[in-house]
Fold these 4 entries.
Entry 1:
Amino acid sequence: MDRLFRVIEDATDEMVDFTAELLKIPTVNPPGDAYVACAEAIGRRLAACDFTVDYPVAEGRPEHTATHPRMNVVGLRRGRTMRPLVHLNGHFDVVPAGDGWTVDPFGGVVRDGKIYGRGSCDMKAGITAAVYAAEAIRRAGIPLAGSIEVSGTVDEESGGFAGMAWLAQQGRVSADRTDAVIITEPTDTDRVYVGHRGVYWFEVTTSGRIAHGSMPFLGVNAIAHMGVILDRMRRELLPALAARTTAVPVQPPLARHATLNINGIAGGQPVDGIQTPCVADRCRAVFDRRFLAEEGFAATRAEIVALLEEAAQTVPELAYELRDLMVVHPVKTPDGASVVSALDGAARTVLGRPLVVAASPGTYDHKHVDRIAGVPNCVAYGPGILALAHQPDEYCAIDDLVQSTKVLALAVLGLTGSG
Ligand SMILES: [Zn+2]
């Protein structure tokens, strides 16, 4: 164990450099830029670490195009036997940088013990931790009984359908061959995520009637009617959601409540175009409702339908259409799963304390591992502070990276067995 930890500490600079190398590849999703370059960078490192590498491409998926190919990477290092097989996964797509950065989001800046960049904690440092957890076992000269796989996948930020879902559909991650999956998403070093809340994305369109803007009383304004709906949500729905609390240990604690976010809204004329005096006859908004296991999807949707119906019945000429965009049911790792106890034992050794078992506020690729691959023995554990994900000046502390890599290495050893 000391040898294993020393090997990881000695590899710190290498790990920082590799993370910075990945951060300089702007794998922004949408649209899914530079995936091939990033998959190949991960693949080269895996090959150098004695993995057999291949690049599963999501052929046939609509988002896999000539300009934005959906290329994943998987490395396999066989131990004495194929099973047990532990699969470490990280997504290498990142959300757009957004405003408010004080460093170059794609510069791979390392400063004051932190690696900065879009995707540093979510989750390119996690990919580094996965690669080097496996590599440390090799460098320490510990023969493995079972086998290790490390994958870098695409599109997690947009649902993971060409990424982990694709690997699961192709049987690359499946109950037939895979015994445990650890997704190295940022979990604040001392937490393990055993699932997540449900997701219901929906679009509401209000339609009115166009008329001259100088005589708005002759038309029906779709934006004003969307305003009515938003106002009802604010006054009635949001307080009701905030009052609901799940028994599932979601972290951070505010995410134990049901939530609703307005992702986007568009109505009437484009505001930066030439304006003509018209009553807006159409308005669309997209909503992100996170529901609790206790609420369930059917009741969640019914509540939205009831709110819209009430608005339509109270406001003359309010017409709306509701369209479901995405539904993800909550997932939960079974109690007593070996992957949880392996990580917990490793954390006690490395960090000197047990892991906090938590559920994630947001969904991640766990759902595909559970539902499509049929591998319930799956969790998220990795370096970085979850609250920094998708924020400006996102970073991962180097110390977090080193500690998490130790925990992962020890847990992998526990799951695959040595000798
Ligand atoms: Zn992530």
Entry 2:
Amino acid sequence: MQMPENNPRKILVINGSPKRESSFTLNVTKAFVGGMELEGQCVTEYINIPDLDIRPCRGCLSCWARTAGECVIKDDQMPMLKEKIENADFVIESYPLYFFGMPGIVKIFTDRLLGMLATYNGKMADADDGAAHRLRNPKEGQRLAVISSCGFSEGSDVFEPLKAQYDLILGKNNYTMICCPQLKALIEAGSEQRVAAYMKKMENAGRMFMRQGFLDSETAAEVSKPPFLPKAYRALVEKFWQDQETGGKNN
Ligand SMILES: Cc1cc2nc3c(=O)[nH]c(=O)nc-3n(C[C@H](O)[C@H](O)[C@H](O)COP(=O)(O)O)c2cc1C
């Protein structure tokens, strides 16, 4: 779907890796976003949240009880970021898997978005997509993709807690998740052709996401597939730890 010239789509990429620009996840996210940009005119902004001043939620529930969604903390960079989120057509969260969930800084940021959800009134939202809450002010057509990477091979197991969390926050059909297992090994030890083929898959997935706002199950499975077979991967991981012991470079 080509967008009219005068209506560029706004893409906001929120990078939650403490490694900022060296993030492996960001690397594949850029390929995905590159694909989105091929589908029409876009204005893309990348933000590294580890560089922002984002204070933790105080737990006062004012955003639910008294201030119609507004947080009482006004003197950090969260109001600026929240405004960007509200104005974006596509929000792409990009971060590594830490302890089978989101890294601390991403959790702090997510907690501060509580006011974007409608209140809990004694029972979960009556939604067939499993969402616990409704959005307070849903923006027509806005899409969220979460792109995460991890070191384990068993992507279908280790990302389950993260997926369950988003299912409850937003509902199963209201976000797109791409899980990239073995990503560090792919980027550091994969052949040039293998890395290029993976990036191409991510680019194509980005194109599909921009065209239709979600990925079909085949494409989502394809980009979430571990690049190496288990035996080859175990050999790579063993070699990595041996190299570390003899002075190799860090993660
Ligand atoms: C504190 C910490 C916790 C991690 N926890 C997990 C984990 O639970 N499961 C996993 O497969 N990988 C885990 N990893 C590995 C990272 O998810 C993996 O290296 C990721 O691809 C790094 O992405 P980045 O370069 O975008 O930061 C962890 C790494 C760190 C530093």
Entry 3:
Amino acid sequence: MRKLTWKWNISLILLAVVILLGATAGTYFWQIRLQKPLEVNMGQMHHMDGGAKHAHEGELAKEGVSEQAARSCKEITAGVSDAPVQEFRLTAAQTIQELDNGQSEKVWAFNGITPGPEIRVTEGDRVRVVLDNQDIQEGVTVHWHGIVLPCSQDGVAGVTQDAVKPGEQFIYEFVAVSPGTYWYHSHQASSEQVKKGLLGRFIVEPKKETFDYDQEESILLQQLNGTFLVNGSAKGWSVEAAPGEKLRLRVINAANDTFDMSVNGASYRIIALDGHDLNEPGMLDHHDFNIGAGQRYDLLLQMPEQGKVILASEAAGLKVIVGVGSEPLTRPERTVFTFANYGAPVPNDSVERFIFDQNLQIKLDQNLFINTINGQSFHEIPPMVVAEGENVKITITNAGGGDHPFHLHGHTFRVLSRNGQPLQGSPVYLDTLLTQQGETFEVYVKADNPGLWMMHCHNLMHASMGMSMMFNYEGISTPYRVGTKSGNLPDL
Ligand SMILES: [Cu+2]
């Protein structure tokens, strides 16, 4: 009898634990997955409170944009030009992909494979991409990560277009103005669609090379339904290279995690970040680098006379093997690369003389169930509102919840300081800034691309849990809507 009571108590405790866990999971899914707005106009939200006073306290900024007076994002397109046209086709469809580790994965892919086809153009080309959706029911889009382009071509469901439903088509067209390493991915339900494989590499070759190398290769890191891949390979990616050859490796992080990448077998330089060249990049010898979600690092290295060079994230099991022969020695002592004092300043750089029209603050944080910006989440976060031509300073603080790689669409921003210390080396221009807990960065954005632009954490799980907001220009409207009514949920 006594034994039975004891068992009964254990059962009650177990039941209580199960109910508690169930309630927690239920609240989580309700908050994250179900509590989506019916309909929100991302161009008509209220002005950001707090931060500095806005210099242009016009009616438009206070009350949102009136549809009649405003210029529509849809009308902001790549103007007519005689730039050479490069046309590509991307078709999104469900498929099964056999991985080189023997696993077969149900994937959503562009042109039947993930990562999708590498799109490669030359600086100044007019890029035309015809997107078809074969059978992705919730619709797809293509966002051109890091590319500065006209608002209507940014590929954000519910902001710059409707998600493209099965049987439908959308044609993207823009001029690839800035050479560098970029990538593309769906921005409809991005946390699911990117994980399932709707992404690819996008390389804009320069008209004139800044750096000297014999060959180059782009290296895309992704997490496909939980499996880490390098250019689609689970076992590691091999690059052929002869002794003495100079290589440029364009490393793209298309996953949600930050990867601690080690380079063994050769010294190297980091010649570009997010596609933008660094000035006088020095030789790195025992440095790892942390590449945040969405970021790109371009490396330049020379093959040794003997043996391989190995680029790897040991934690994620990601590996790139360059060349053949003996394994490189693994350095015991390591330093993590920082751009804060790398390379050289540009003479007569005007950064200290900048006068900012606006000083805005962003605090990235989390509570039990959601990720927040300034204490709020996604469509409830008031947008930053700027006027064309303004110089905007944004102070970004990571107050908790892990790494937050902060991405701004449609612009390249310049990093001014880290934790109060101005950058000492090369100017650093990024579209995605990795912030780690406790760090504060100041960045400068030139408001020179009128539109409605998303600004979000590129850990897409964090974005789906609310860490996403808008950077809106005064006087720009959109005919599209985010919400369950339209089915446009850019960061679900
Ligand atoms: Cu985050």
Entry 4:
Amino acid sequence: MRARVVPALVLTLLANLLVLGAAVPRAYAQVVGGFDFARAEVSVTGLQTPWAMAFLPDGAALVSERNTGRVMRVRPGQAAVQVATVNGVSASGESGLLGLALSPSYAQDGWVYAYFTSTGGDNRLVRFQLTAPQTQTVLLSGVPSATIHDGGRIAFGPDGMLYVATGDAGNTANAQNLGSLGGKILRVTPTGGIPAGNPFASSRVWSYGHRNVQGLAWDEQGRMYATEFGQNTWDEVNQIVAGGNYGWPTCEGTCSGGSFRNPIVTWTTAQASPSGLAYANGTLFAAALRGQRLWAVPLTSGGGAGTPVAEFQSAYGRLRAVAAGPDGWLWVATSNRDGRGVPVAQDDRIIRVPPATGGTDTARPSAPGPSAAGTTPTSASPT
Ligand SMILES: [Ca+2]
């Protein structure tokens, strides 16, 4: 009797699944990580290689432009306004004006932090206030620079310290050299000093063995994550711990038997080449350059990764930055004018994705149009 009932049940279930599958609207399938990708909007256009976004108390975003050295203020549906220029930016290849962050107490102190490749031949960190934007104080200098692998993301952690992602600057030996600031994630005080609690004595180094880190994010439990570009094979998302050695240049991707920390996610460099990273709703969002997509990575309760889901695949071209906005929307910036993309007239753009539960927005009816897919690699290891 059971033997007959079970197949019948299975058939009924299968039939229901087929019907459901046919009835499920496309929009439903595009709700990922709490955001409704079917309702994404192009909110800002006409930027020149935006690299980082940081939100002001009034909801506008400051955006760094890599090649111009400009800091722009943007609001959805409005033209971008230049509010500062970072002094002494040297932009070449992947280098230039990169990371941007606001003080956690911005409303009181007004500090804007920027990380850039300088005409002095290093990568450095400065801060300034928008009321006197040309008065810029160098907080940290001497980070190795090159036309490739400059890292560049900066972000304040939940501990109030500033984290600075660097790259090996094309010299792989920097990554394992604790005396070099290259190939590291650094942790510094809001004035660039060495905070209490760093893992190595008298050092700004928080983690090492990195090739090129351009994305930093923290989950609700304060766990830290970073994206990292692989060389030819494996890109990585790592959970970052104090003093951790993430393997480069000995290990790319996952390696067994060593003392290195393995990534929680790997992708081929064609699938990803991940730059910016954001966290929202139990999910990491990684902006992929060469992969031309936004990866959503669900996190497990233990801080590991579930199965990543790709959104925006080839819809907007190369993606550089992603941030969870104070408006509840997910903000994503393109990088189609960086010399490796195929820009459309509106580029570069910021696309916003509304939260899945509501977020009716009437101000910006702009319809996103897919851009031309494909890139023209200009270096041996393009990202
Ligand atoms: Ca690694």
